[in-house]
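Known limitations

Files may contain more than one protein. Parsers should not assume a single record per file. Below, a two-record file is shown to illustrate correct handling: read the sequence, read the token line, then continue until end of file.
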Amino acid sequence: MRNVKRIPEPETLVREAPGWRKQVLEIKRSGKPIPDSLMIKYNQPDVKEALKTMYSDDQGRCYCCYCESQIGVVDYPHIEHRWPKRIYEEQAFDWDNLHLACQKCNMHKADDWDDPNPILDAVLDVPISDHLSYDDDVLDGVY
């Protein structure tokens, strides 16, 4: 995992996210299920492009926020919610909660969340080296 710098919030989120969040909270208060069609409103072209910009290198190669594998070559990049949108519905449209991940990491993480031990944030946990360490003995012989 490497650190990235969050760029300015995409215009669609600036303009639409407050209304989407309000709808989510109203539906949640009513006790009805929140429709999937509302929960995927964040999936907009300018949001995807901003995340690709954040997670790309100088040559335009895009990398997963967790495993750093190159994405967008053999599979589509996934918009990842660090705070799972099924648990924290009101944060589904928060720019600070959105990252870019490969399909494998996004599907494996799913809706997992552990408050005492939250998943590292590539933007906020700076420097990331303060939060990760590698044991060379474990890596010996691994290809």
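...continuing to the second record:
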Amino acid sequence: STKKKYKMKKVDFFIIGAQRAGTSFLRYHLNLHPKIFIPKQEPIFWCKDMNDLSEIKTFNDYINLFGNNLEDENKVCGEKSGNYLFSADAFLNIWDYNKDAKIIAILRNPIDAIISYHNIQKLNGFEHINDVEKAWDLQKIRSETNREVQYFVKKEKLRLQYKYIYQYDIHIKKFIDKFKKNQVKIVFYDDVLNNKKKLFEELFAFLKLENHAIEDFKFVN
């Protein structure tokens, strides 16, 4: 049998969140660069505390998301999973997999983000409390017991801890402490609204790629 001539590369970069802060927008527009590949599916693979409901259960499933792109030396491969930022173990698991990985975090005003995140949890069936303030007040009870937690969410109760999810200082520090500071790029939701071209120039430079002009930005949700 003929041996394969390539050595499979590792995934080069990770868009880690925050949730409801423009990660899908980043994924879509970074993917317009001819040398970047990011799968559409959110793997949620490296947060073992938060991937109970993910379809990606094995490393083989994970690698298959990238098709042949990990065999192409000219491609820079990345993935987006908004749970990585607040997961207790994703930063460790990603570091174990690829110590040279680049990390991209996008942050949004936490109050706006929490309201949007609460809405999407309702739409996806994880949250059954319609009022965001009531859901906020239930955080302590939910963390200590299974009261007001739907059965299928019991293994992923962290997703209902709104305050913890948006404590950016704690989560960003985990990644900066584990990876080198120059491997972590923090961008802001305001730049998605107001400075799109500059934002992507900086991101392509961070990934050590030539700039790729994006003429028409698309609303991605």
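Parsers that stop after the first record will miss the second one. For reference, the second record is described as follows. The longest strand covers residues 102-107.
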